[in-house]
Structures are given as structure tokens and as C-alpha cells.
Design goal:
Distance between the termini: 95 Å
Largest sheet: 4 strands, antiparallel
Helix content: 25-40%
Strand content: 15-25%
Number of helices: 5
Shape: globular
């Protein structure tokens, strides 16, 4: 009987030692995700003071001229010039991803984005049928560029899947330049991208006159 008691005590002690060893076993380290490197501010970042100065310069040097011009065009309608064009953050992300996708498939790299100044027509609709929400207002549209024959040019994707210069597709005319205006441009533009060509130009953002500004 005594021997059986000693066996039980010895067995219980062994179990306690085993449990203690299990508890003291080192825990496996969980894999951690690498920390994302902090992004440095781009060189083009400007201060709030400089932003306000640029905004005020536009007010002083451009706004009155726009209002005077539009008042002469239509004296019976009050015209308040727009001060900004806006796109949602998700729209810009989608646009950037789309441009990169199309450029990669065409075998070219996007060099830059050009923000062209623009002016909406005094018409109810654009050539593509979309409504002109802000007739006569200034705006911008975005054009991606790539290097072609040693030149940085805005491009679109042709029906053959290759990047092609915009200038060759719609013509060009600059005041004082040698290029002649493209007389067929008015009839050519609405049908330009109906034959398989793909435009990468981006517009139709929101805009707002005062007081809906940050400055």
C-alpha cells in the first residue's frame, strides 16, 4: 500500500514538472509586417503664406478682368468667376491607376501630368453629350505625357494599343506660331475616340466661386 502511495506521489510530481516546463517554453514570435518607410515631402510643397499670396495675386490680377469680360458678353446675367476645380481623392487615385495601367500595356512610362487651363463653353452640353454644369467658367483638364522621339508629349492610346501623340491627332495652333489651325478640327473632335482610340485626358471636376474657398 505504501509503495502504491509513493508511486502516485511520484507520478503527480512528474506531471507538475511537465506542466511547468510547458509553461516556461519560449513563445513563438509572431511575424510582424515591415514598417512602411516615411514619405518625404515633395519639393513642390509650399507654405500656407505662399498659397495665400498666390490666391490673392489671382484675385488682384485676373478676377476683375474675367468679371468685366463676362459682363460685356452677357450684361443681364451676374457672373461669379470660379476659384478652383476639385476632384475627389478616390477619383484621382482611380485616374492615376488607370493611366499607369494603360501606359504599361502600351509599353511606355508616364513622364508627367500636364494641367491645362480651360474654359467651359456657353452651351448646355459638351460634344460627348455630357451636361455643361458651369457654362463659361474656367477649369482645368489633365493630360499625361511620355517621351516620344526625344520629346515629352501628351499621349493617348490608339486602336492598335500603342501610345500616340495628341498633337498629331487633333492638330495644333498657337498664336504667333507656324502651325495653321486645323479647319476640320470642329467636325473631327466629336468622333475622335469612336474608332477604338482611348483618351487619357481627365476633366469634369467640381468647381466653386467664393465663399467656398480656403483662402
Amino acid at each position: 500500500m505504501k509503495n502504491n502511495k509513493n508511486i502516485v506521489i511520484a507520478s503527480f510530481g512528474a506531471i507538475l514538472l511537465l506542466l511547468g516546463a510547458c509553461q516556461q517554453a519560449p513563445k513563438k514570435e509572431q511575424p510582424t509586417e515591415p514598417k512602411q518607410e516615411k514619405i518625404a515631402p515633395p519639393e513642390g510643397i509650399i507654405s500656407l503664406e505662399e498659397s495665400k499670396s498666390l490666391y490673392d495675386n489671382y484675385t488682384k490680377n485676373r478676377l476683375d478682368m474675367i468679371q468685366t469680360f463676362e459682363a460685356e458678353r452677357n450684361p443681364d446675367e451676374k457672373f461669379v468667376p470660379a476659384r478652383f476645380t476639385s476632384f475627389t481623392y478616390s477619383e484621382i487615385k482611380q485616374y492615376m491607376a488607370y493611366v499607369e495601367q494603360e501606359a504599361k500595356e502600351a509599353g511606355v512610362e508616364v513622364t508627367s501630368l500636364r494641367f491645362y487651363f480651360a474654359n467651359y463653353p456657353d452651351k448646355p452640353n459638351f460634344p460627348d453629350g455630357k451636361k455643361v454644369v458651369h457654362p463659361r467658367q474656367n477649369s482645368i483638364f489633365i493630360v499625361p505625357t511620355t517621351m516620344m522621339d526625344g520629346k515629352e508629349l501628351g499621349f493617348y492610346i490608339g486602336a492598335d494599343g500603342k501610345a500616340k501623340p495628341i498633337k498629331g491627332a487633333v492638330g495644333s495652333h498657337e498664336e504667333g506660331g507656324e502651325d495653321e489651325p486645323n479647319t476640320s478640327q470642329a467636325s473631327f473632335a466629336p468622333s475622335l475616340f469612336q474608332n477604338g482610340d482611348t483618351s487619357l485626358n481627365f476633366n469634369h471636376g467640381g468647381s466653386g466661386p467664393p465663399p467656398y474657398t480656403d483662402f
